[in-house]
Amino acid sequence: MKSCEWCGEPEALSGTNTVYWELPDGTRAIELTNTPAMICSSCGMAYQEDSTIKDIEDQLFLINTKKLPESLTYQQLMETERILKRNYFDFS
């Protein structure tokens, strides 16, 4: 169990949820189901950890997003074939 990033209570548990993500080119958003999430039983907030957000953002930069369906699972997104070796826009 981890502390909730929103309320600070030690009530956040690992789970999954559905999120909507805008593609890097801004043309549309996609639905990602079964996305890893932290869910707080105290305040009810469900959110993605920074590492999950980075994984999604990097993957979206590395694949051909024009071929993505409107809805897919997090796992399907992460298994999509990459056209680049790395995210050249990540300067961290």
UniProtKB/TrEMBL annotation:
Pfam families: YokU (PF14122)
Record-linked InterPro entries: CHP03829_YokU, Znf_MqsA-type
Name the UniProt record assigns to this protein: YokU
UniProt source species: Bacillus mojavensis
Lineage: Bacteria, Bacillati, Bacillota, Bacilli, Bacillales
Gene: yokU
